[in-house]
Amino acid sequence: MLLLSLFFAVIFAIAVKGCVSSGDSGAAASDHDPRVFNLELKSDRRPPVLNERFIETYLQTFGYLRNESGHDTSEVENSKEKLVNALKSFQQFMGIPGTGEVDAQTSGLMMRKRCGNADIHPSSETLGLWKKNVLTWNITHFPKTVKESDLREQLHQAFAAWEIVISMDFVEVDRADKSDIVISFEDSENDWQRDPTHLTIARASGPISSRVWISADEHWGTNNELEQTGTDLFNVLVHEIGHVLGMRHSPDSGSMMHPLFERTMNQQRPIVTSDDVERLRNLYNVGSQDVEKQPENDATSLNETTSNNNCPKIIQSATNAPDGRWLVFKEDKVWQTLNHTVMTPPIEIFQVLPSAPTYVNASATVGDLMVLISDRQIFGYRQTKRNGQFEPAEGYPKELHSRVLFYPEAAFPLANGSIILLSDNVFATYDLENNAPTFLNDKNVYFPNLPENLISGIPQDAGSDNVYWMFTDTDIYEYDARIQQILNSESYTTFFTCDFVKTFNN
């Protein structure tokens, strides 16, 4: 025990030195700001003290260190090695150098509020999975700092984040004893939640008969209040629902399944990453056919257009310019059309839109502002009155707000100046001026009978949201939003006139 104490005396001396000098050197990465070491928990609990006992307890609690019955003198060296290896494992999981020493970065990460589920699991531990597609849920205890209506709205949005990944519906019921998922906001000393580190602010059990516990001691806020704090109730809800579905923690700090909830002010909010999507779909063996079909469709698209790339047959996005022309995108190319006539052969996007992305997965125009979305970046453009050319709009590009957890696959504008972003069956109403979503819900409830595989929408009358031209990859539809019905449809080969093509083919 003496040797172990000496070992900790050395590493804590390093930690203290690191904490004192880090503010002057500025060497720490922004994602692992050593100032977090001095953060106090925003709850009624006392902040934990970083000492030998705490570090060993932390590593045991979250799966990095197996619980030992005791340390005999003959086992001190072996115990020290296990502790160092556990510390290295923690550091590697958190994406920092695995030194085995408690430096400023390590201590800062170790003191952050987090999920109570383990990061590392025994190889023998098996995952449970749900055997049904409709899961019921109930809230037994509500937080004092959040209105019940606001909480329910955030829960619906959090469930929707996973509903678009796999075919799963979540339905609220009146009785906890009849629900698959029980959600409760309770104090930190309840019987189920006993975290000796006092850093856990939420945890969840996996399938089946899941329980989600969230700290009632936390000063939860919503909407604008979330920007003022290091933790986000919405992100916590999405994270714990991931556990309910059987997901484990991810070492990716940008993932919604990363275990640390508390983040520095400059650190990007987490999202449901493509790795999260793949892991969940692999758990339930879903989506493999869809994933395999996509390259096949791409290959077909290329074959179909090889003979004639000058006229749009298959597209990926479309929007209108203020002067009335349409911009139709595919891969890194854009067509310009006017009154159903293709004006030019396809050219590279940046030749029309300076500093534009090489790929557009969604686009829309509101007033004189045209926006292109590439992955999670929003590019804005305005058309000059002098010569009709496009210039980047002031303040763009912007990052899509973290509350939109999906990658937009389609977009169309509303008359009120917002745009609708869609992915599968989920949509977000997005306020471009404030760069934030104002509403998230089920597409089929609010926009029924839209064309399957929608990619874009252009109002037939500027500034109106009565009747749209709605685009899929191969066809264009007339959609009346007032009666929520498709009026007509035809393929691009008949909709667009491409007389100039003969010149290029001769």
From TrEMBL:
Binds 2 Zn(2+) ions per subunit. Can bind about 5 Ca(2+) ions per subunit. InterPro entries: Hemopexin-like_dom_sf, Hemopexin-like_repeat, MetalloPept_cat_dom_sf, Pept_M10_metallopeptidase, Pept_M10A, Peptidase_Metallo, Peptidoglycan-bd-like, PGBD-like_sf. Residues 297-310 have a biased composition (Polar residues). Zn(2+) binds at C115, H239, H243, H249, M257. Ca(2+) 4 binds at D461. Belongs to the peptidase M10A family. Its cofactor is Zn(2+); Ca(2+). Keywords: Calcium, Disulfide bond, Hydrolase, Metal-binding, Metalloprotease, Protease, Signal, Zinc. The modification Phosphotyrosine is found at Y396. Residues 126-288 form the Peptidase metallopeptidase domain. Residues 1-18 form the signal peptide. Ca(2+) 1 binds at E218. Ca(2+) 2 binds at D180. It holds the Pfam family Peptidase_M10. One of its GO terms (molecular function) is zinc ion binding. Ca(2+) 3 binds at D195, E218. Disulfide bonds join C311-C498. The active site is at E240. GO terms for biological process: proteolysis. This is Peptidase metallopeptidase domain-containing protein. GO terms for cellular component: extracellular matrix. Residues 286-310 are annotated as: Disordered.
